[in-house]
Amino acid sequence: MRMSLGENMVVTLFGESHGPAVGALIEGMPPNIDLDADQLVADMIARRPGSGLASKRKETDEVEILSGVNSGKTTGMPILLLIRNRDVRSKDYSFLPYQPRPGHVDHPINVKTEGAADLRGGGSFSARLTAGLVAAASLSRNLIPDEWEIEAKVGALGGLEGDAGIALAEQARKDGDSLGSRVDLVISGLPVGFGEPWFEGIEPALARALMAIPAARAVEFGRGVGAGEMRGSQHNDKWGEEMSLSEGADGALGGMASGAPIHVRITFKPPSGISLPQETFNQVTGMMEELAIKGRHDPVIAPRARPVVEAVARLVIADLGIQGGYIDG
Q1: Which tens digits make up the pLDDT trace of 21-31?
Q2: Extended beta strands in 112-261, E state
Q3: For the chain, what are the domain ranges?
């Protein structure tokens, strides 16, 4: 089984939530890219658990760069990033694999690996592995031209925006429950024609990568599902003076940048790990039994997924940039 993203610059994730470490291997990063150590620290702080609406797991998320960087610059060789796990409570998962958690991958991966998988804390399927994505994307910041702007924000929590959404998430936490959410992504400044046709187009490449973020359930571009209720005369975006497009126009056409910003909405399901008791089958007793999960979990995903969405988008755009010759690979 492989956990890799990209064709030209390939990022491969490794590790387990409760193993010694998680991290990423970057292959294809061009040489002489400056490493911004302060930015790397800031990016990791934005993703890490331990505060706000995040899990109370305390991780420093310090990134050890074991290869591929010398004197503050990339060498062109594979870059190995290691992030050690320092705060695990494996005893919280002693009921596995015999009483799989509702909404989790415990049972499918246990069957697939014939019982070999590490299920503690979600193992290799845990959002803990997104630390490697964020670290890898941070190193790619100076690879991407400044005018290519990639920015994500929390769009909604439980369908509500701002303080109302935060209050709803806090109430879900108090109830031992969780809440669905959305992250809004905007990519702007790409040159017209950036991207590839068909399966390697901007939207297919982004959709595939964004849907791999744990708990992602929908990715919408432009007007999204609302386009299914429109007429062509409403949806078509006219070309204006100097081939400009109006606000809200599709940012990609035929897989290639149109010159307008690309708007993407990523919807996340409520986190499956909740302390509210649920019934699930116990394979030892052969009966449906109540299960109350004791682990530390996020009540809502969007706040911590925001930097992950940015990171994934940055990696995809860098990969397509190398493929199209916009970035020297």
Answers
A1: 999 999 999 99
A2: 149-157, 181-188, 216-221, 252-253, 256-257
A3: 4-324
Q: Report H helices in the chain.
A: 37-47, 106-112, 130-139, 162-174, 202-211, 232-235, 302-324
The correct answer on CATH 3.40.1110.10 for the domain covering 4-324 is: no
Contact 304, 298 (CB under 8 A): yes
pTM of the shown model: 0.91
CA pair distance 93, 123, nearest whole angstrom: 11
The distance from CA 48 to its chain's CA centroid, rounded to whole angstroms, is 13
Q: Is the pLDDT of residue 52 over 70?
A: no
Distance CA 329, CA 285 (A): 57
Q: Are the beta carbons of 7 and 196 closer than 8 angstroms?
A: no
How far apart CA 206 and CA 212 sit, in angstroms, is: 10
Looking up tokens 């993703």, which residue turns up?
Answer: 47
Give, as one character, the DSSP assignment of residue 255: T
97 prior amide bond cis, ω within 30: yes
- In this structure, are residues 55 and 47 in contact, taking their beta carbons and an 8 Å threshold? no
Q: Which residue has the tokens 């209050």?
A: 167
